[in-house]
């Protein structure tokens, strides 16, 4: 059945060589796809076969901001209880919209799911984890930057087995005062206890942001999980 939700708009950086892989990366609260698009432009020099998609979150009324609207993947009930009172309905709605982008890559652009990396920063990290862990598609990898695992009390009842062995790149600054470092640590520990393949990268003195070293590590991850496919030489 077709989705009744609006299709997400996005900033797209097309592959500059033959398109054989796609990265879908979700921005954080109050941001837009344009905020991360320069990263795609920077990395594409080294992974020219990769198409980067940076979707835009809708403007939502935010409870913690007195109902004022801001670009967000889900409502924030309280700034002091990041692990509680999560907007499950909003998360699931945005998950559905993100999965439509995945299906479009698979069905229309002929990119297999195992050549797609799904990821995000902050709120985008949270949503990408939910989408990947509950997806029927097996992805090439997941990139989780400065976020936390959503719906931790019930997510293991929602997951599929498709991405049990999918490599998860998790980066977090130990000076993060927005999504505290301990939330990242706890989330990674929880995933490892449930047999997920998580690589946890700690960035000393980094706050709620990305760093050049993190982007270098991210590029190495992309080269590993979605390497450029060499053309098959015809036999003589």
Question: Key features?
Answer:
5 helices; single chain; alpha/beta; two-stranded antiparallel sheet; seven-stranded mixed β-sheet; 236 residues
Q: What Rg is obtained from the alpha carbons, in whole angstroms?
A: 17 Å
- Class by alpha and beta content: alpha/beta
Percent helix range: 25-40%
The count of DSSP E runs of length 2 or more, i.e. the number of strands, is: 9
- Rounded mean pLDDT is 93
Largest sheet report: 7 strands, mixed
β-sheet strand percentage: 15-25%
Helix and strand sequence: EEHEEEHEHEEHEH
**Count of helical stretches:** 5
Q: How far apart, in Å, are the first and last alpha carbons?
A: 48 Å
> Looking across the biggest beta sheet, what order are the strands in?
1-3-2-6-7-8-9
Low-confidence stretches: none
**What would the principal axes of the Cα set say about the shape?**
globular
Describe the structure.
It is found in: Cytoplasm; Nucleus. It catalyses: S-hexadecanoyl-L-cysteinyl-[protein] + H2O = L-cysteinyl-[protein] + hexadecanoate + H(+). One of its GO terms (biological process) is fatty acid metabolic process. Pfam families: Abhydrolase_2. The chain has 236 residues and is α/β, with parallel strands linked by helices. Strand 8, helix 4 and strand 9 form a beta-alpha-beta unit. Helix 2 packs across helix 3. The model has no long low-confidence stretch (mean pLDDT 93).
List the helices and strands and how they pair.
Layout: E1 10-13, E2 21-26, H1 33-44, E3 50-55, E4 59-61, E5 69-71, H2 88-107, E6 116-121, H3 123-133, E7 141-145, E8 168-173, H4 181-193, E9 198-203, H5 212-225
Parallel strand pairs: 2-3, 2-6, 6-7, 7-8, 8-9
Antiparallel strand pairs: 1-3, 4-5
Helix pairs in contact: 2-3
């Amino acid at each position: 059945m077709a989705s009744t939700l609006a299709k997400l708009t996005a900033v797209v950086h097309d592959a500059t060589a033959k398109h054989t892989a796609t990265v879908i990366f979700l921005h954080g609260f109050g941001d837009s796809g344009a905020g991360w698009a320069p990263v795609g432009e920077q990395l594409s020099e080294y992974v020219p076969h990769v198409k980067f998609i940076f979707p835009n979150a809708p403007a939502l009324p935010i409870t913690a901001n007195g109902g004022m609207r801001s670009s967000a993947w889900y409502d924030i009930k309280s700034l002091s209880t990041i692990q509680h009172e999560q907007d499950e309905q909003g998360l699931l709605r945005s998950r559905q919209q993100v999965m439509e982008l995945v299906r479009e890559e698979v069905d229309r652009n002929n990119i297999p799911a195992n050549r797609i990396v799904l990821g995000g920063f902050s709120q985008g990290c949270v949503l990408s984890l939910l989408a990947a862990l509950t997806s029927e598609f097996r992805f090439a990898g997941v990139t989780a930057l400065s976020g936390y695992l959503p719906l931790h009390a019930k997510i293991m009842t929602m997951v599929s087995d498709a991405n049990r062995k999918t490599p998860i790149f998790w980066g977090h600054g130990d000076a993060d005062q927005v999504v505290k470092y301990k939330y990242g640590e706890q989330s990674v520990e929880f995933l490892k206890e449930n047999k997920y393949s998580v690589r946890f990268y700690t960035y000393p003195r980094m706050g709620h942001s990305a760093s050049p070293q993190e982007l270098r590590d991210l590029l190495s991850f992309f080269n590993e999980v979605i390497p450029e496919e060499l053309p098959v030489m015809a036999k003589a």
